[in-house]
Amino acid sequence: MLVQPIDSRPRQAVWGLGFRPFFLGGSVFALLAVLLWAGVLAGVIAPSPAGGMLAWHRHEMLYGFAAAIVAGFLLTAVQNWSGIPGLHGRALQGLLLLWLLGRASWFVALPGGLLVVIEGSFLPLVALALARPIVQRRLRNNYPIVGLVLLIAACQWLSLAGWLRQDELWQRRGVFAGLWLVAAMMTMLGGRVIPFFTRRALGNMAPAPARPWLDRACLLLSVAVPLAFASGLADTPNIGVALLFGALFALQATRLVHWHDRGLWRVPLLWSLHLAYAWIAIACLGMALWHAGVALNPSLVTHALTVGAMSGLILAMMARVSLGHTGRPLQVPTRIAWAFALMQLATLARVVLAVFTPLGLSLAALCWSLALLLFLQHYLPILLQPRADGMPG
Question: What residue ranges are annotated as transmembrane (predicted)?
């Protein structure tokens, strides 16, 4: 694998690869954003971002928080895939600055068009940075990842167009389509790394059995779901959409069964991944039931996906990637295991306990915040310091 020469590395380690600034920035932003949202729900504070707090919350947890972590992960992984040095130095600083401007733009009096340009430029630039080494090395297996990033960017533009038009329907469709596209990306990347990580961590060096039909079917249906949201087909209960979600639930559950090994429950870096991925299947089942006419609150199902699957996988992947790409052993202390557990408790509080008492929302925000605080406490110095093995990155 090609690496950048020693003398080409930035003086500060944080600008060496994309995972460092975006994992840090995304985590700090998510912590502040959830605390702000919890304060609004409690009536303690009343900020006034452009478009209102609900529009801000929907947009920023997806296109602010999740997009930052996805960018950090992919901009790091593409170096491994291609052997070409990943985005670093001033180019990485510029991309982070654009992301930061996007977060601030909601609270600054900007012309609507300028806000849309700032917000909507980040993901296309990430896709461009990914596409160059992938196309240069002709890594056709990774072309769909670039396509997914561009589709997520298109959904963000749909949401932003709705914000400009003051059309809540367009905003919702853009957010929910983008959310399920992130789920499609988690499905694709999860299929690559979760069985590999599981077998390797448990000492099984043999390759996982190939099930290309299962991987392709999961990806195909996972991309069909956001198309249903973007087109408006999923706005109201629909038996066709129910069947789509039901089939996707069966496929995701089948994957989990094939990946399972009893030994994974002894390793926090493994059970955190498996439990988070399980929430994708649960969210699919919940959406299937709602579209079939069962009296479920779709917001609870959505938060099973956003808190349980998306945030759970983000936390677990950040924990592992940050160790692997800084030359450290793939082991976490007890406090990080507690962070994983707290994210699961946050999901249960938001999805289950909130049905019975408003305290579920407060408990979910508390557990989420504690999970991210524990992550930052342990990983802040790791992400700021050079690699432990002296290698670039």
Answer: 22-50, 62-84, 104-131, 143-164, 176-197, 217-233, 239-257, 269-292, 304-323, 335-357, 363-384
